[in-house]
UniProtKB/TrEMBL annotation:
Protein name (record): adenylate kinase
Gene3D superfamilies recorded: P-loop containing nucleotide triphosphate hydrolases
Organism: Acacia crassicarpa
Quaternary structure and interacting proteins, as annotated: Monomer.
Residues spanning the membrane: none
Top-level taxonomy: Eukaryota, Viridiplantae, Streptophyta, Embryophyta, Tracheophyta
Top-rank taxon, per record: Eukaryota
Protein keywords: Kinase, Nucleotide-binding, Transferase
Amino acid sequence: MASSSAAANLEDVPSVDLMTELLRRFKCSSKPDKRLILIGPPGSGKGTQSPIIKDEYCLCHLATGDMLRAAVAAKTPLGIKAKEAMDAGQLVSDDLVVGIIDEAIKKPSCQKGFILDGFPRTVVQAEKLDEMLEKKGVKVDKVLNFAIDDAILEERITGRWIHPSSGRTYHTKFAPPRVPGVDDVTGEPLIQRKDDTSAVLKSRLEAFHKQTEPVIDYYSKKGIVANLAAKKPPKEVTAEVEKVLSS
C-alpha cells in the first residue's frame, strides 16, 4: 500500500525536481562510499564543513540530537523508549542511540554513507557503534578531527553578537557592526547568546576534552584519524577535507 501512495505523491512532484534528483543520484552512483565521524569542540567549524562534505560525497548527515527528537516525535519503538528515559530525567542509553543510528542508515539517502556529528562522545559509544556497523559488514572510514586551540575558540565564540529579531550575526573582530553593540540596519541593541559567554564555553570545552579526547585516541589506534587545522579560514579547511577524503 505504501508504495502506491508514494507513487501518487511523486506524480505531484514537478518534473524539474524529479530530474534534478535523478541527476543527483546518477552523479552520486559513481562516488565511493564514505562513513565519516566529525569531532571537534563548539565553534571549530564542523557545522560549516558538514553540508559541503554531505553534498560533495552524497552522504546523509546524522546529528544524534535531531534524530532522537525526530524518533520521539514519530513515536517509533525506539523513540517511545527514548521518551520514557527523558521523561524520567535519565540519559538516553548508548544502545538506544546506536539503535536510532542503525535505523537511520537504512534510508536511501544514506546509501553512499553518512556523516556522524556529535556522536560518539565516549569510547564506549565508539565501541558500540563499531559493533553495529560490523554486523552490516561496514566500518568507519575516517574520523575528521577539527583540531583548534581553546584560545582561538574563545575569541571566535565570545566575539559573536546577534540581532535577536532578524537573526543577523556580528563578530567584534571578524564582522563588527558599524556602531559597537548596535544592529547596522535597525539601530537596535545586539545581544550575546547565553552559550556564547566565556564561562559557558569554558565548561563545554572542559567536558569536550575530558570525554572526547579518549575517542580520538581510540580511532587513532585504528589509523583513521585525520587532524584538520580548524583555525584556518573555511575555504582552506574545505580543501584540507577534500585532500583527506580523496586519498
